[in-house]
Amino acid sequence: MTLEQGCIQVYTGNGKGKTTASLGLALRAVGRGLKVCMFQFIKGGGRYGEHLAAEKLAPLMTIYQTGKPGWVNTEDIAEDRRVSQNAFVQAQELLTSGEFDLFICDEINGAVGFGLIDVEQVLGLINRKPEKTELVLTGRNAHDRVIEVADLVTEMREVKHYYNAGVPARTGIEM
């Protein structure tokens, strides 16, 4: 199966569920025999549950994890920007290869927000997307220019979160 038309989706907002929503879409696509790539920006460090699941769904699902361990150093972004720029080149090559039906750039909006990737680069990536590839861009604070060119934009809004009551990230739920 191949897609008749690939659209551009954005999952943004301050609420939980952006990556999770894109993984739900990935699961649906794999179920239909589509080939999926999730390319994670600024998510270095340990393996998350989605990495373990992708291994079981291979070769239809592949996840590339990039970024330094820990969070972005907002005092000096030079190293994080270097890592993100190298990752962006790799993501661009994978997207334009035409190998994938669904391509998810997880946390790319956040990388733009931190100044690690320029919005012009993301717009260029969108313009180079193969016609029959679905492109999903996740992360908080999606840039207005990205929202403008997207075909679908979903904003996750936090109403209440158990983290604020002291519940830490849990294996199998948040990671």
Write the layout of secondary structure elements.
Blueprint: E1 8-12, H1 18-31, E2 36-40, H2 49-57, E3 61-65, H3 78-96, E4 102-106, H4 108-113, H5 119-127, E5 134-138, H6 144-149, E6 152-155
Parallel strand pairs: 1-5, 1-6, 2-3, 2-4, 4-5
Total individual domains: 1
CATH superfamily label: P-loop containing nucleotide triphosphate hydrolases
**How is the main sheet built?**
6 strands, parallel
* CATH fold-type name: Rossmann fold
Spatial extent as radius of gyration? 15 Å
Q: Helix fraction?
A: 25-40%
Average pLDDT, all residues: 95
Unreliable stretches (pLDDT < 50, length at least 5) are none
Order of strands side by side in the largest beta sheet? 3-2-4-5-1-6
Key attributes of the depicted protein:
175 residues; alpha/beta; Rossmann fold; 36% helix; globular; corrinoid adenosyltransferase; corrinoid adenosyltransferase activity; ATP binding; CblAdoTrfase_CobA; transferase
Explain how this protein is built.
This protein has one domain: P-loop containing nucleotide triphosphate hydrolases (Rossmann fold, 3-Layer(aba) Sandwich), CATH 3.40.50. It is 36% helix and 17% strand. The chain is α/β, with parallel strands linked by helices. It has a 6-stranded parallel β-sheet, sandwiched between helices. Strand 2, helix 2 and strand 3 form a beta-alpha-beta unit. The protein starts with 7 loop residues before the first strand and ends in a 20-residue tail after the last strand. The model has no long low-confidence stretch (mean pLDDT 95). It is globular and about 45 Å long. It is built from 6 helices and 6 strands, in the order E-H-E-H-E-H-E-H-H-E-H-E. Pathway: Cofactor biosynthesis; adenosylcobalamin biosynthesis; adenosylcobalamin from cob(II)yrinate a,c-diamide: step 2/7. This is corrinoid adenosyltransferase.
